[in-house]
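seq:
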Amino acid sequence: MASNCNKSFANSYLLLMPEEASLLDLVRILFSQNIGHRKCLESHSGEKTVERSFKRRFLIVASILLQKLLMAVSKPLAFLGSFIEMFINTLNLNGGLFSTLLHLLTGKLVVPDRKSSKFLSFIGNLDYRMRLGTMKREDCRYYVYLAMMASKASYENEAFLEDIVTNKWEMEYVGFYNCWNDYQGKSTTQVLIFLEKHEDGDTYVVSFRGTEPFDADAWSTDVDLSWYGIRGVGKMHAGFMKALGLQKNVGWPKEINQNNGDEEESVDDHPPFAYYLIRDILRKVLSENEKTKYIVTGHSLGGALAILFPTILFMHDEKLLIERLEGIYTFGQPRVGDEAYANYMKAKFKENSIRYCRFVYCNDIVPRLPWDDNNLMFFKHFGVCLYFNRGYELQIVEEEPNKNYFSPWYIIPMIFNAILEIIRSFTIAYKHGPRYREGWLCFFFRLIGILIPGVPAHCPQDYINSTLLGSIEKHFKAD
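struct:
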């Protein structure tokens, strides 16, 4: 429970605890301006926490209800996801539906192994593309495309990743790590690290796994409106901080005692924290070669962790890692902090000449969360947004259109756009070549967009298409 933790590392906070929420608590929060002294809510203001805006109280209640719902469906959702993945992989391994039925009847059915390099996640089955192609370092799209492919690959299992990095990409596989969330009491954060070698200087790629479609824990993190305020930095999303390695009672100490991922368990009898694991690996490899640099990337929740990682580096004044950070590339990233945090990061990026590219495809719902409204919630994006429409045409904007998603004026245009995306599934291969052909699973998933526009748009296939077909040279020339 958050109330049992020392939060002196933060100068302000608002923490939602849905597991403690009763119906009476939610009614009182909704209709009483004094929202303190509730089991499901904790604030630095204590029992005197006053929230006069009904809309803000409504959003707090909605966040708690969504998290309670996700907790309730966590196990059946995970089972459903596991079943779907096993079913699709069984069809793939046995040559399709009819061959699978024949193999089943004749006792020759090939059963998928989840730890095998041939097993694909739901995300991987939506889009089979994994090869990097012939793109060279000299192409300004190279690192963007490499980052996107790494973000997509990070959804897969360790055997698959080692095979794809080593044999298909011909790069050096460093590791795939399951990292600890101190508040959820389990490993909920995954990160892939590999090395691209080059005569002009090596580059490490750090890729955080994003929100998996059937992972209720990750979705709970996305919809959680809890935050911590750090003096001199700003207010940051508490769920993302916890996923990166925030520790109970101590926050972000500069040094801790943990392993570097080589052992099954750490000295504290749990796997390592993501931030400290990555930092220690990079400290070692960067100190061994002055030409070596690194990039950080992630899709969805992974994008939020990718932008938070350098935040903690700045807080700890990690000069070596800050100097060698070549760029941050995020895809479908949710909002991470308030305007003070945004200004802090913009100043740090400018001071250290660090490139930050935030990619948003069309009506993707996740970059439009959490809510951004001066009178309601404080979450803000920052930096230049590389926004791609349905035709993968690039616009360089400060903020994506319909920034809060739920505007009634956009409902009909979003549904119409979802229908056109379904039609595009049948035509894109004819227009751009077989590399862009979409399978049956991707087609059926796009149908969801008619009911909930923006959900299929969040998946990686449209971000891959955007990096390949969009004129992203416009952004780099603008730099």
